[in-house]
Design a protein that fits this description.
Blueprint: E1 3-11, H1 16-21, H2 23-32, E2 36-43, E3 50-57, H3 60-71, H4 74-84, E4 90-99
Antiparallel strand pairs: 1-3, 1-4, 2-3
């Protein structure tokens, strides 16, 4: 049964281009951690604009291993700090885990 995670990030006004430029970094870090079908979607119908980062895993055990590997990667933690910190372009986010039924 496929499971996954989706994070919706609100982007600070005027910083969408900066956020889009980091997409490949997020995708590579998640893929390197074992995530499958990693994609980033730009939600254009809201203010502030939002990015949705979604990925999948084969089962809940694999989902946990991906999360552990991602959080153990210093490069992932550095990207999280730079994008979500006081000077970052993300003003807030929400993450959900889902199961395909």
């Amino acid at each position: 049964m496929t499971v996954g995670s989706s994070s919706v990030s609100a982007i600070k006004p005027g910083r969408v281009e900066e956020a889009l430029a980091d997409n490949e970094k997020w995708k590579k870090l998640l893929t390197d951690a074992g995530a499958q079908n990693v994609r980033v979607l730009l939600m254009m119908n809201s203010t502030p604009m939002r990015l949705v980062t979604a990925w999948e895993a084969a089962d809940q055990e694999t989902l946990g291993r991906v999360g552990d590997a991602f959080m153990a990667n210093p490069a992932a933690l550095d990207l999280m700090r730079s994008t979500q910190g006081a000077d970052g372009y993300i003003e807030g986010y929400m993450t959900d885990t889902w199961i395909e039924v």
